[in-house]
TrEMBL record:
<dbReference type="GO" id="GO:0016743">
    <property type="term" value="F:carboxyl- or carbamoyltransferase activity"/>
</dbReference>
<dbReference type="InterPro" id="IPR017945">
    <property type="entry name" value="DHBP_synth_RibB-like_a/b_dom"/>
</dbReference>
<keyword id="KW-0378">Hydrolase</keyword>
<dbReference type="Pfam" id="PF22521">
    <property type="entry name" value="HypF_C_2"/>
</dbReference>
<keyword id="KW-0808">Transferase</keyword>
<dbReference type="InterPro" id="IPR011125">
    <property type="entry name" value="Znf_HypF"/>
</dbReference>
<protein>
    <recommendedName>
        <fullName>Carbamoyltransferase</fullName>
        <ecNumber>6.2.-.-</ecNumber>
    </recommendedName>
</protein>
<keyword id="KW-0863">Zinc-finger</keyword>
<dbReference type="GO" id="GO:0003998">
    <property type="term" value="F:acylphosphatase activity"/>
</dbReference>
<dbReference type="InterPro" id="IPR036046">
    <property type="entry name" value="Acylphosphatase-like_dom_sf"/>
</dbReference>
<dbReference type="InterPro" id="IPR017968">
    <property type="entry name" value="Acylphosphatase_CS"/>
</dbReference>
<dbReference type="Pfam" id="PF07503">
    <property type="entry name" value="zf-HYPF"/>
</dbReference>
<feature type="active site">
    <location>
        <position position="24"/>
    </location>
</feature>
<dbReference type="InterPro" id="IPR004421">
    <property type="entry name" value="Carbamoyltransferase_HypF"/>
</dbReference>
<dbReference type="Pfam" id="PF17788">
    <property type="entry name" value="HypF_C"/>
</dbReference>
<dbReference type="InterPro" id="IPR041440">
    <property type="entry name" value="HypF_C"/>
</dbReference>
<feature type="domain" description="YrdC-like">
    <location>
        <begin position="206"/>
        <end position="390"/>
    </location>
</feature>
Amino acid sequence: METGDIISRIRITLRGKVQGVGFRPFIYNLATDLNLTGWVANTGQGVVIDAEGPLSNLDAFLYRIEEEKPPLAHIQGLEHTYLQPEGYTIFEIRESSEGTAKSFWVLPDVATCGDCLEEMFEPQNRRHRYPFTNCTRCGPRFSIMTALPYDRPNTSMDRFEMCGACLGEYEDPQNRRFHAQPNACPQCGPKLSYLDAGGTKQTGGDDALMRAVEALRDGCTVAVKGVGGFHLMADATNEEAIGQLRKRKQREEKPLAVLFPDFESVQQVCDVSSMERRALLSPEAPIVLLHRKNNSLPDNIAPGNPYLGALLPMTPLHHLLTRELGRPVIATSGNLSEETLCTQNDEALQRLDTMADGFLVHDREIVNHLDDSIVRVVLGREMVLRRGRGFAPSTFPITRHWGFGSVDLQVLAVGPHMKNTVALYKDGEIALSQHIGDLVSPHSVTTFQNTINTLTRFYEIQPELVVHDFHPDYASTRYAEDRDMPRDAVQHHFAHVLACMVDNEVPPPALGVSWDGSGYGLDRTVWGGEFLLVTEEGFSREGHFRSFMLPGGEQAVREPRRAALGLLYEMLGKQVFEHNDLMSSLRWSPPEHDVLCGMLDKQINAPRTSSAGRLFDAVSALLGLGNHNRYEGQGAMRLEFATGIFLSPKETKTGPVRSPAREPWISEEEILGTSRNLAAPFLSGIPWSDERYTFRILEMESGKSPAEAVHRYTYVVDWQPMIEEILSDLARRREVSEIATTFHHTLADIVVGMAQLVGEPRVVLSGGCFQNRVLTEMTVTALREAGFQPSWHQRIPPNDGGVAVGQILAALQKEAPKTMV
Ligand SMILES: [Zn+2]
Ligand SMILES: [Zn+2]
C-alpha cells in the first residue's frame, strides 16, 4: 500500500494573528475541499485543528494553510503531529474553549516576517538596514523576557526608551507595531558594535556589520551575537577557515550547521522535499538536516556525512550579514564542545577569546539562552531532534487517554545528564524547557539551575515533587536530592517511551522499544536495548538485547572498536585474541591488546550492557567504518550512511540485496557455552529468520531484579547468529552497503519479532537510535506490514532531550491514584 493512502490524522496548533481574521471559516472550507473530517477551535494556545483523511490530503492541507491563509492572518508558530485516526465523520467549527491558562503561555521567538524584511531593504525607510527591526508578527520573545506578562518593562528592551516615531507606532491600534514590545529603530533601539579579539571596540552601527563581513571574507572566525546566544561564524566556502574554526573549537568531525542567505542558495547544495522546505521557511526557522546533492561546499563542514544542517536567516542581522557576504556561512554555537551556549557580551569575550578573531555584538541583552532547533524529516514527518529557538519553551497537554487529565500536583522533572532539558507539570499541561546541554561543566549546571528558576517563575509553579533519573551520579539527580521535597526516580528507558507516548497521544498499554547508548537499569546494570511493556501501572522489562562487556567502560563510547571486541569476546571468549584478522582490523597496539585482554578475562572495568547504541558501534567498527567516535553517535551514523539509503521508502531505490549464506542454527549448548551472562537456563529458543540476517529470541527465566519481578520470563534477543553472518559476509567481501542495509533490516525484524511475542498492537519507538532515519523507516514499515500500529517521535526529541517529559508522566502515573478523588 502507498503510504499516501493511509488514513491518518493531523493535529495542528497555530499561533499568531489567527483569531478574528476569518481563519476558522478558511480552515473549514479548505478541509471540506480536501475531503477531511475533524474540527477547528480557538483555544488559549491559539487555533487548534484536528483533521483526518488520506495522508496525502493531510500533507496538502498543511502546505495550503500557509500558502492560502486569509490576507490579514499571520502565522508565528505552527506545530503539527500526525496521530492515529479518531473516526470523525464531519468537519466542524467547534465552540472556543478557554483551555490553557495564560500563565502557561510563554511565546517562542519568531523569525523575521516578510513585511519587516521588505522595510529593511527599502532605502527610504527609516529602518533601512536596521538589524533589530521587528513587529507584532516577528522578533525576539522568550529570549528577552525577564518576567510575565510579556510587556516591555519585563524584557531586556526595558532600558531602551522609544522615540516619538516608535511610540506612535506602538500606540496606534491600526499599526503593525501596535504593542510590539521589542519595537525599535536606529534612533532609539539597540546598536551593533564590532570588537577585536581582545574586546576593544573597533566601530559601531552599519560599519560594524561591514567589518564582520570583511573579516568573514578574509577567512576569519567571527563570534556573532544572535537571538539566544553567540554563533561562531566562518565562510562556509573556505575550507581553511572551517578547519581553523574546528581546531579552535576542539570539534574534530562533528557536523557544523550552515546559514544560507536564502532558500534558492540551499537548493543549489541540497535536495529539499516539500516538508523540508516547509520547516526551513517556517517561523521557527530551525536547522534542517538535508541530503547534500553535490560537493559544492567543502567536505570538512561535515566530514564523511551525506547530510548538511542548513538554516535560513532568523533575524534582520542575519539577513543583512548573509546578503552582504553573498554566500553561506558556518553558524555553530559559541561554546566549547557540548557546554551550554554563551549569551552575555563579557562572558563571550572570556569564553570565546581563543576561538574568535572578532566579535559582532549588540547592547540588547539575551535573558534566556536558546540554541538553534534541529529538525529531520523522517517518513514525511518532522522529527524535532533539538528544541531551542522558535520552539521553546513549549507545552504538551496530557490527554484524556491517560485517564488522569487533572492530577492536582505541581511537578518538576530535572531530566537526564546529556542533552539535558527540564520539564514542569501543572493543571494537565507539561512545559518543556529549551535544550540546556550536557551537564558536564559548572557553567552548564548553573544554566540548568537558572532555567529551572526561570521556568518555575514564568509558569508560576511551586513544585511539590521532583522527578529525576534513576542514575545516582547525574548532576541532575544530585540537584533533586538537594531539594527539600519528595522525590521520585524514573528509569531512563521508561521515560523515553513515555515521552514518545505523550508525543503521539498513545494510551497504555503499548510496547516501548527504547534503544540508545546507555541508561542506568533497575538492576543497576547498563541498559540500552530495551523492550518495555507500558501499562497504566508502570512498566515491565519484556526483553532486551543479549548483553556484552564494554572494556574500558566510558572509553568504549568513544571507541566503537572496544564495543566490537566486547561483542566478539562474548561470542568467542579468549579465542578472540587468536583471530589475527579480526584483531588487526581493530588496530590495537600491543600494550592496548594486553590491557584489554586483562579487563575482559578478569571482568574489571568492563561493565555489561544491553545497549543497542553500542551494538551499532560494534558493527560499524567490524565493517571498518571507523574505530573512534569523534562525537556522540558517530558510529551509528556511519552505519546508517553506509546503507546508501537517503530517501523515504516509497522513493527508495536500493540495489538487489543478496541473501547471505545461512549458518546452521547454533545449538542451545553452544549458546550456553559462550554466554556467561545467561545466568538462568533459557526455556526455548525461538528462531526468527527471513532473507535478512538470522537472529534469535530466547526466553529466559528472569533474575530477581525489581524490573523483572512481575515477570517470570524475559526475552533475550541474541545477535550472535547475525554477527557470525556479518563476519562471513566480510570474509567473502560482500559490499559494506549491503551488509549495513541487511543489518538495519534485521533490527527492524527484531522489533517485529518482539512485538509478535508481546502481542500489543501499539508499538512505540524511542531513544537516540531512532534518530537514525533508515532504522526508523524500516522498522515502521515492517511493523505496519505485520499489522502493528507504530509510533515514533515528532515534536519531542527521541534522544535524551525528551526524557524530562517522560519523567513527568511516570511521576503522574504513580501519583494519580493518590490525588484523584
Ligand atoms: Zn515583522
Ligand atoms: Zn525609535
